[in-house]
Design brief:
binds zinc ion; 11 helices; globular; Rossmann fold; 2 domains
């Protein structure tokens, strides 16, 4: 077997500690795996949740699940990828054989999810070490690093003229927001949409709704600066989050001619999920695509669900099919229909990964990119 190489990476030694930028040992790619020289990684609120400990992760580990780069080495049995290919990374590889894969739900693969939560690759082992000790992967990717070994099925080949920063964002926030609109909800031209929580995923939902031809797009957030960004990206009305969920829902109904067809909740806040459902019109749906705390519960006005045929839809990764949707999204971006580059508010070098986490926590950033060039 070939020797391990070293890679610079931002290591999380334990939950509640700071990130340390160090040289890790990286084993060569095994069968069905490739090594990628990463050029950009987005920093997502899910990374922050793991960093802060509100979601449990095995440590030590390397965070990061929004990456793009160039294939540098391929393992045994790889036919679809070659050294030199540019790739955007998906955190949802799949086995192709389990019940969910056979039901055409590969993003919910019953084989991959437990392996992901355990912090290994698809065979359950890791390729990362620090001082001889095992280091875990995060979401199969661990993109806060210059290099990563990832499953072949996490790689989506992209044209070589696509900027790596935009390609990286497609790997989580953009797919989660745009595809929640296109795939989970299936928004049709002329329908009315509201988006609650205008971080990276929420703003991606706004641009996805614009591209889908939504008539009304009501942006909802507690921060004025985020509402302004949503307006610049095509939201047609804005509602400041203040008062009770019922108050906010009433304001959204007022701003949308009597209620929306789809209300997307992108932050995982129970109160916003309640307001989302109450902001819908007859036969409308709340689409819950934010990740709440594991112990969170939601209270909903029960009678309106049968009486108005309201629905609640869950959405993980926007129900996306990365092989199909990443190239489509990037092509629409190139043609000027999805202004994804405008989601990027900050760029930092890998050495400042720790400061990037603080920036995401502050709420001032739309999307922070770690520049790994
Ligand atoms: Zn599967
Ligand atoms: Zn994410």
């Amino acid at each position: 077997m070939a020797d391990a190489i070293t890679t610079r990476a931002a290591l999380l030694p334990a939950v509640g500690t700071r990130l340390r930028v160090v040289d890790l040992e990286l084993d060569p790619p095994g069968p069905g795996e490739v090594r990628v020289r990463l050029h950009a990684s987005g920093v997502c609120s899910d990374d922050l949740n793991a960093f802060d400990g509100s979601v449990e992760v095995p440590c030590p580990l390397v965070l990061g699940h929004e990456g793009a780069g160039v294939v540098e080495e391929v393992g045994e049995g790889i036919e679809a990828l070659r050294v030199g290919d540019h790739v955007a990374l998906s955190w949802a590889p799949y086995c192709g054989r389990c019940e969910e894969c056979l039901r055409d739900l590969p993003h919910l693969c019953g084989t991959a999810w437990p392996k992901m939560l355990a912090g290994g690759l698809l065979d359950g082992t890791t390729r990362l070490r620090f001082g001889g000790a095992t280091v875990h992967h995060y979401c199969f990717l661990s993109s806060f690093a210059e290099r990563a070994v990832v499953p072949e099925r996490s790689c989506v080949r992209i044209p070589k003229d696509v900027p790596f920063d935009v390609a990286a964002l497609v790997g989580c926030a953009v797919a989660s927001g745009v595809c929640a609109v296109w795939r989970t909800a299936g928004v049709r031209p002329g329908e009315r949409v509201a988006v609650f929580g205008l971080g990276g995923t929420g703003l991606a939902a706004v641009v996805g709704a614009v591209a889908a031809g939504a008539a009304d797009i009501v942006a909802v957030d507690s921060q004025e600066i985020r509402l302004e960004r949503a307006r610049e990206l095509g939201a047609t009305a804005r509602v400041r989050w203040e008062g009770s969920p019922a108050d906010v829902a009433a304001a959204v109904r007022d701003a949308s001619g009597g209620g929306v067809d789809y209300a997307f909740e992108a932050r995982g806040r129970p109160a916003a999920a309640e307001a989302a459902l109450m902001s819908t019109r007859i036969r409308g749906a709340a689409v819950l695509c934010g990740i709440p705390r594991a112990d969170a519960t939601i209270t909903l006005p029960a009678l309106s669900i049968p009486r108005m045929e309201r629905r609640v839809l869950g959405s993980i990764y926007g129900s996306a099919r990365p092989d199909r949707d990443f190239p489509l999204i990037l092509d629409l971006h190139r043609r000027g229909h999805l202004p994804l580059d405008r989601l990027i508010s900050h760029r930092l070098p890998l050495a400042e990964a720790d400061a990037a986490m603080d920036l995401v926590r502050s709420g001032d950033a739309t999307r922070v990119i770690l520049d790994l060039e």
